[in-house]
Predict the 3D structure of the following.
Amino acid sequence: MSLMKSIFSIMSPAGVRGPLSILIFHRVAAQPDPVFPGEMHARRFDEVCGWLKSWFNVLPLDAAVAHLKAGTLPARAACITFDDGYADNHDVALPILQKHGLQATFFIATGFLDGGRMWNDTVVESIRHTEVTTLDLSEFGRFMVGSPAEKAEAIGAVLGKIKYLPMAERLAAAQRIAMSAKADLPGNLMMTSAQVKAMRQAGMQIGAHTVSHPILACLSDKQAKAEIQESKDFLENVLGERVGLFAYPNGKPGKDYTPASVEVVNCLDFDAAFSTQWGASCTGDDLFQIKRFTPWDKTQWRFGTRLLQNLLLNR
């Protein structure tokens, strides 16, 4: 047994005391991205899957939830999840997961399937593909965008200013940026409904993630219920089966969703819901606020250490 696996066996025992580590991913690019070189790509994801398989018992998410509820998790229990529904999840991540014999759960923002684009991707792709070297975005500032590093800095600054605006204002701001950048934007960033169905047929699990990826804390209970219910209904229609798992968009408790949001989800025939609160959940924790986190380190030792640090948050 490797040293790291031995440590995980101690830190993540079986049974009632056992924590559940859940990892979040979003995109897996086919090649390293020059604008965001630190983001996940195929070669790195292949490495990560190998590490996870050697260190953990990687479980289907619905089975993990059932074990968590019953206090019967195996030692070193972990799950893999993806948020939003990007096409590269199907094209790039799926074959790598299959290569390693791993199952993941994909939380889908249904309103962007079949040719849609999330507001943040409108911003990202506008700045990525612009051919100008200086971009004047009026209320958001003036940015140098001649190099990949400058584009990354501009994207981070602009997204930070827009993220928590009301939904209509976010969309309008993203469109203004696209017009200023004068760039051709891709229309195939997200999966098609057929690809979502193919993911399920390949043995992956599918969960709901709202229709338009709003900040639920900014919505009324009625609006939140519609966002969540419509995404669930859409996916159940595509898959021909019940969808019992939900992930909160952005997912920070108290900031992105509220106790009222949790109550809404609790009333809509879900088995569990997932936040982006760091840590690992244990038996007795709220099944509608199960913790997840994203490790970002590139080397095996640092990646494993980050997972251990995440487990220590429960101590």
